[in-house]
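QA checklist item 7 of 12: single-chain prediction sanity check.
[x] sequence parsed
[x] length recorded as 395
[x] structure emitted
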Amino acid sequence: MGLNDTPSAVRTHIGFFGRRNAGKSSVVNAVTNQNLAVVSDVKGTTTDPVYKSMELLPLGPVMIIDTPGFDDEGALGELRVKKTKQILNKTDIAVLVVDSTERMKECDNELIELFKKKEIPYVIVFNKSDLKKVQAGENSISVSAHTKENINELKELIASLKSDSDSSKSLLGDLISPLDTVILITPIDESAPKGRMILPQQQAIRDVIDHSAFALVVQDTEYKKCLESLKSKPSLVVTDSQVFQSVSAQTPADVRLTSFSILMARFKGFLDEAVRGAYAIDNLSDNSTVLISEGCTHHRQCNDIGTVKLPAWLRSYTGKNLSFKTTSGTEFPDSLDGIDLVVHCGGCMLNEREMRYRMKTASDLGVPMTNYGTAIAHMNSILERSLLGGELLKR
């Protein structure tokens, strides 16, 4: 997989914010060295967020997001401002663009307060330095998108805001050693994407290869024969959560077993919360409402896990008359009134900040939240095993 093919979910998301006509799109074009965004003297030219996956040195693979003006007006303007606020939930680094020929306005300060509230590292960019110089201070820089003055320095400043720990994380690399054998169980059914593998499976294969280990990729129907063919036991087995129960029954007790979904929860930084949320399943009662949320959108199959399998498993496990609501893609409610539990997918298509935002939204409202794999493991009484005896919770 080349850098241009790096999945959006593992790219650093850089959001450009500011008032209309402050020069956000011009700065985006200067930073990316591309005509990524339409530039005009007319206020409100950018009406919807513009996304661009690219390689930005010295950061590496990034997702650039150019947002509408935060001072937009009217009914449509309010919707655009709301969309801009939602972008903050997935922004790793924020760039506030200010017109240096004008003083900072109330909406600029409001954005700064939002950056601080959401703990987003940010830089203030005073654009149009060719027209008026501004004395830059801490976390700020004076640039000209027109003459390209200080654009390279701006890139360096943005790069300095990225956490060093971001690039060292892997899905399972710290769990294996060179020459280990890792079995990855990937069922191919009606819900599997045609001609390709889902992102966690791709990441797992790459992690195994990167750590000089052996990856054996099999369907659950061939798993038993695969085990029997090995001269020595595998170091780790990772399975799709939907076949957790049958795979667990076939896996020797002294072989470590977990799921792609559980590893993804750890990778996204919310496994501890997901485990607590799984235990909350036991507290559901008749007429409790469960929100099942997915981070991507796809065509629902007749045996879809989110709308069919999980509701059936939850009703069977609890013996309760549960109600269900569903969301998908970028949809996630600001209010969880009437929701007793959130069961989220692995979040492979969402970046870590977005997943942490969703988890914090639930936590702040006192609503437990778990994910598919953790919930399924708990309902099959194999959660402790799937956490590798607590090893996954130590990171």
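[x] summary fact logged: The longest strand covers residues 12-18.
[ ] second reviewer sign-off
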